[in-house]
Design goal:
Elements (H helix, E strand, L loop, with lengths): L1 H7 L1 H6 L11 H15 L3 H17 L9 H11 L5 E2 L2 E2 L1 E5 L6 E3 L4 E5 H6 L2 H16 L2 H19 L11 H12 L5 H17 L5 H11 L7 H4 L4 H14 L2
Parallel strand pairs: 3-5
Antiparallel strand pairs: 1-2, 4-5
Helix pairs in contact: 1-3, 3-8, 4-9, 7-10, 7-11, 8-9, 11-13
């Protein structure tokens, strides 16, 4: 019976080039990993929200969060007021500032929005709204859901690789940290980035905010080299993305 379970889970091990040694794996753990891989591809919006809750808490625990009375937090509150009563996938947006020199911002499917002080230091308020609108666009357009599914699937596959060791859980704290890191550093496709840009443009137009901020934000990002965030290394280039928004402004569309 145990051997049958192991063979049935061989599709999971194949992802890790491990089918040849499947007899050395704990079958129950391997089968559990297979279940997790299947679940990753079928995560519902509520599943994404729950996983995002855990991931956001994990990230917060590992980061230095600006106090509510700090200049960074007060400024972000002012910036976010421009979006009004914003929700993401039916979840109320909650936002915090991470005190770090890194230039980044991201949003998750539970409404979690995190902005890095390094980004705030180089952007004015309109530019910040443009970038934050872009990150929220990834959530609203389903890109973040796919990124979370991928991060979850990779973590599940790794649990199969480590199934020879006792105590491997479906989602350990280590795996949660791994999922969070992979999500934050996720690279979106050219189509996804362009769609999120347009989402931000349309959102700012709808809310009566300056779309020009999105242009100058990309122009500033274009001057930075070697960035590790999705904003910094995405395609198309920041220069062409700025031009696209300028073209939309000129056309009034």
């Amino acid at each position: 019976m145990q051997l049958k379970k192991a063979v049935a889970a061989c599709g999971v091990a194949f992802l890790l080039s491990a089918c040849g040694g499947v007899q050395n794996l704990d079958a129950n753990s391997l089968t559990s990993a297979g279940t997790n891989l299947f679940k990753a591809a079928t995560l519902s919006d509520s599943d994404i929200a729950a996983l995002s809750n855990d991931s956001c808490k994990s990230s917060d625990a590992e980061s230095k969060i600006a106090p509510a009375n700090s200049a960074y937090s007060k400024r972000l509150t002012k910036v976010m007021k421009g979006f009004g009563d914003m929700t993401l996938n039916g979840q109320k947006v909650n936002y915090k500032v991470y005190v770090t020199k890194d230039v980044n911002a991201w949003a998750m499917g539970n409404g979690c929005v995190r902005v890095y002080s390094g980004l705030m230091d180089m952007m004015n308020d309109d530019e910040l709204r443009g970038v934050i609108g872009h990150e929220m666009g990834h959530v609203a357009l389903g890109h973040s859901k796919k990124a979370m599914q991928t991060a979850y699937a990779v973590s599940a596959a790794r649990s199969a690789a480590g199934a020879a060791s006792p105590g491997v859980a479906a989602l350990t704290s280590s795996q949660l940290g791994d999922i969070t890191e992979k999500f934050i550093n996720a690279q979106f496709s050219q189509t996804q980035e362009s769609a999120a840009d347009d989402y931000s443009f349309d959102l700012m137009k709808q809310k009566g905010m300056s779309q020009k901020g999105l242009v100058t934000a990309f122009q500033k990002l274009a001057k930075l080299d070697g960035g590790q965030s999705s904003m910094m290394s995405s395609h198309p280039s920041s220069t062409s993305r700025a031009q696209h928004i300028e073209d939309r402004i000129a056309k009034g569309s």
